[in-house]
Amino acid sequence: MNYNLSFDQLNKFRTIQDPIADALVSDLFQNKSKKEIGVLYKQLLHNFNQLDSDLLPSSLKDYFEQNQDLPNWIDEKKIKLANEIFLNIGPEYATSLICRALPLGYVSSNVVELLATTGYLSKSIKHGTAKRLLETSQFLLNVMQKNTFEFNSDGMKHILKVRFIHAMVRKFLTDQNWEKETYGYPINQEDLSLTILTFSVGAIDGLRRMNIFLSLYEKDALVHYWSVVGHLIGIDSKLNPTKYKDAKRLYYHILKHQASPSENGKKLTAALSDFMKATLKLRVMPDMPDYLIVFLINNSVYSDMLGLPDFKSQSQKLIFKSSVITLKSLNIFRGNIFIRQVIKPMNKLFVFSFLKYFDEEFKLKLIIPKEFRLKWGISDKVYKSF
Hints:
Elements (H helix, E strand, L loop, with lengths): L6 H7 L5 H13 L2 H13 L11 H9 L9 H30 L3 H12 L4 H19 L10 H22 L4 H4 L5 H21 L6 H17 L11 H15 L4 H18 L7 H10 L2 H6 L8 H19 L4 H26 L7 H6 L4 H5 L2
């Protein structure tokens, strides 16, 4: 399939949404009160598994049961390989996603406008950012489990839950007279494609900056995995590439199409950076997250759009470069048993910092599936203490 789409073709996809999920929401609003829908929405937003499926409206039960069909092009070998890759480098993958792929997406002023309108830039910017990072991290962890593409798995239900929430947000924004002529239809096909490519290409390319090198086949496996997620979440096949080279071309083409500086984009980036600073509590150089984001994005035009700062002094620049050299040196020799023993505690520290901060500051809990906790050396005793 040809993914070399013109800007005019991409603009057409900005008028297309998701007929299946949108029809479901329309049915709910015709047959349920706004209060009933509000309660249901809040329950689904937190955890589908806590709901008694017998209490769900029949249309919603049908939606969850009838939209789990996998594409006929799914490659089980690539799915298995993608699971193994995440099992081995999950903390690094999450770091790349949070510190590189997410802020890079903030160059899209249209996406940023949606995030701002739906509350991520509310009075409590700090809490809004934490909530989004928790949701993003939980989605990543649930979706990357080895049984995700089995019927009614936690990952499968999470994907379909997100698809439903997208439709609810579209309904809300449409009722609020969303300016579709300016920003495109809310959560349209181009924006959905950019989101899935953020989880695949956006994160993969950040790994390379940290000297975590994947073969083309491994990159293909990860992109293939996320393209199955894209299929389930309702993305048109013309915007859902299954191979890395195609996905990379489309990802950066959409970014180019959407890139535009905005004040809200700068605010979101600053909020993300502040969250990382508060989480890691780096005393020697508290601005390290800013410099890490700039380093991972590796594009001065986009960094400037996001309002990211340059080094305040030569000493800061020297400390950061030394830290990067150390990190890249460790990663390039990560196959060595001794180096693995050095990296593992660093990964645990990163994960613990997130768990502790979510718990202490916001009373939010990130649920890490046991298969990942065992691999990453996180004991049940320590995990349950958060």
